[in-house]
Write a structure and sequence with these properties.
This protein has 561 residues and is of the alpha/beta class. The chain has helices spanning 2-6, 12-24, 30-33, 38-46, 63-78, 106-112, 116-122, 124-133, 146-158, 175-186, 197-222, 237-246, 271-277, 290-302, 342-348, 357-369, 383-386, 395-402, 421-427, 438-444, 469-476, 487-503, 536-547, and strands at residues 52-58, 82-87, 136-139, 168-169, 172-173, 226-230, 250-256, 262-267, 334-338, 375-379, 410-413, 430-433, 449-451, 464-465, 505-507, 511-513, 520-522. Helix 12 links the parallel strand 6 (226-230) and strand 7 (250-256). The chain starts with a helix and ends in a 14-residue tail after the last helix. This is Capsule biosynthesis protein.
């Protein structure tokens, strides 16, 4: 019921009213209390003239994001940086805040833009929280001209939607950022079935152009040493990053990590891409102790319940005690395939062997239909039902449209199912993935993984990486493997998992889970808690932002999870 209500457009205004109330309520965290902390006021005064840092928050209505950006602003100020936060003040005709499930009238949005209630809870409350701390702010509207608005509208109206790479604003490519925003709005991997898809894509093109125009002026005026942006993709985040790069300003992006209290920071681009490009030397050749190995495996086993994570997809996933629960033959090998959320896969994972996850999934089913000696179980990603925004393109519907009568050896597990993805993998001879991070986890548990998309585990030396559809079928023809990873591959996989989950995920122990949309709460007693030496993870983050050092922490975590 809750999942259905989140996708029901008629409930959108009720959700917006609720979010307006939450935005204006006291967050009750330690950041707000800093306004009365003499040590904070002294740090703010001392930081004047320090290294200039621009934090591109923009979307103040993303409460969790705004909280961490505010924390970064305070921590960097305590370390002597002169920080400027940027917010969107209802300056754009579309943005990352705009979601289908927050839009009561999609046709109205296509024509007129965001609901005033959306902008109302996004900008003003965030501005007040920053003002209370005395942090410098700039707004997108102040950096736009009437001529910018005219040109952006003209560009959007005339853009060739079939050639997104050709859409430029002052030599900055904006078309793909606009498409990312439109796909996220519809929570789909393409716009072909959306009545208002083209109109809303044009609205995002206009927004991307205006975002670029704003950041051109803001960067020229503030002249930051570095720009910090959550996500680093979508609109306006992707445009802030693109303009900074075009002006030779260093870029840092960040996202919440999977482990509780942790975040991933990257230089130059979104972590979705930087993790694919990391050199093997960054994780393969360093020390990997027995304690590291044990900590990594303990965490991987905890993933079954999400006990140590920000998000739990299933509170109590049941074990697969008998494969016959799935209606399969226990005497035949099982191959498990794991999907991504469709719109997520389209945005975050560049295609390699296949044009899309849809093509990969369909070709996989066709192949297994011809191999009745093998059994394929397709585990649909739980976030199709629980993600934000909730997916409007369902794997089960795509499969049913192409295969109204599935072969007897193919089973589909719904996203709402409490079936444990991990227990299923343990029963499988091998697993197939497109781009899911599950490849990191399952490889580390010695399970063979065939990678069809551009996943983070590709090219690391312990997976079967696909280069073309023909190569995919050649690798499938080797099934069943009949064995787990060899010792050298297993060691590599566990080293990488340790690097990914413990070295790259930077812990800030006083950032705690909060209920509801706020997600995070900063539990500190004063500015002194943010000083250098108080948190190894925060030190790595701030040093990386200010000094361009790697966002890697080798200090043992303060607790095992």
């Amino acid at each position: 019921m809750k999942s259905w209500l989140r996708r029901w457009p008629a409930a959108a205004r009720l959700r917006l009213l609720r979010l307006n109330g939450i935005a204006r309520a006291d967050a009750g965290d330690g950041l707000s209390a800093l306004a009365h902390d003499p040590a904070w006021r002294a740090a703010l005064e001392a930081a004047k003239g320090g290294a200039r840092v621009m934090i591109a928050t923009n979307t103040g209505g993303h409460f969790a994001i705004e909280t961490i950006d505010r924390l970064l602003g305070v921590a960097l100020t305590v370390r002597g940086a002169a920080v400027t936060h940027v917010l969107c003040d209802a300056a754009l005709p579309a943005c990352q805040m705009c979601e289908f499930n927050l839009t009561a009238d999609v046709a109205g949005f296509a024509e007129k833009g965001p609901d005033r209630l959306l902008c109302g809870y996004c900008y003003e409350p965030a501005q007040k929280r920053l003002d209370a701390l005395g942090l410098a702010t700039r707004q997108l509207t102040s950096a736009q001209s009437d001529e910018d608005r005219r040109q952006a509208k003209a560009l959007a109206d005339t853009a060739n939607l079939d050639d997104l790479r050709s859409i430029l604003w002052n030599d900055v490519s904006i078309g793909e950022h606009a498409m990312a925003g439109a796909l996220r709005f519809f929570a789909r991997s393409d716009l072909s079935s959306e009545k208002h898809g083209a109109a809303i894509l044009r609205r995002f093109i206009e927004a991307a152009a205006l975002s670029a125009a704003s950041y051109e002026r803001l960067i020229d005026e503030v002249r930051p040493k570095v720009l910090v942006a959550h996500h680093g993709i979508y609109t306006p985040q992707g445009l802030a990053v693109a303009v900074a790069r075009a002006r030779n300003v260093r870029v840092v992006t960040w996202n919440p990590a999977y482990r509780r209290h942790c975040f991933i920071f990257s230089h130059d681009d979104s972590y979705h891409y930087t993790l694919m490009e990391e050199s093997a030397e960054s994780w393969r050749d360093g020390p990997f102790t027995d304690a590291d190995r044990e900590r990594t495996l303990n965490y991987l086993y905890s993933r079954r319940t999400g006990a140590g994570d920000w998000i739990k997809f299933h509170a109590d996933p049941r074990k697969v005690d008998d494969v016959r629960d799935l209606g399969l033959d226990p005497q035949k090998p099982i191959i498990a395939a794991y999907t991504n959320v469709f719109w997520d896969a389209q945005l975050h994972f560049p295609n390699n062997a296949f044009a899309s996850q849809k093509e990969w999934l369909e070709r996989t089913i066709v192949w297994f239909e011809k191999r009745p000696d093998l059994q394929l179980v397709i585990r649909i990603h739980p976030a199709e039902a629980t993600g934000a925004p909730p997916s409007r393109q369902r794997a089960a519907e795509i499969i049913a449209a192409r295969f109204p009568n599935l072969a007897a050896n193919v089973r589909v597990v719904a996203p709402e199912s409490s079936l444990s993805s991990y227990a299923l993998a343990e029963r499988a001879d091998a697993v197939l993935i497109f781009g899911t991070k599950l490849g990191v986890e399952l490889s580390a548990l010695s399970i063979p993984v065939i990678v069809a998309g551009e996943a983070w585990v590709r090219g690391k030396g312990f997976t079967h990486d696909v280069s073309s559809p023909a190569d995919y079928e050649a690798k499938l023809a080797q099934l069943p493997f009949g064995h787990r990873l060899d010792p050298d591959q297993e060691d590599l996989a566990r080293r990488y998992a340790h690097h990914f989950f413990f070295r790259r995920m930077l812990e800030i122990p006083f950032v705690e889970p909060a209920s509801g949309p706020r997600r995070f709460r900063v539990a500190i007693d004063g500015a002194a808690a943010l000083a250098r030496g108080k948190s190894a993870g925060l030190d790595v983050i701030c040093e990386g932002i200010l000094e361009n050092t790697p966002f890697v922490c080798d200090t043992p975590v303060t607790r095992d999870r």
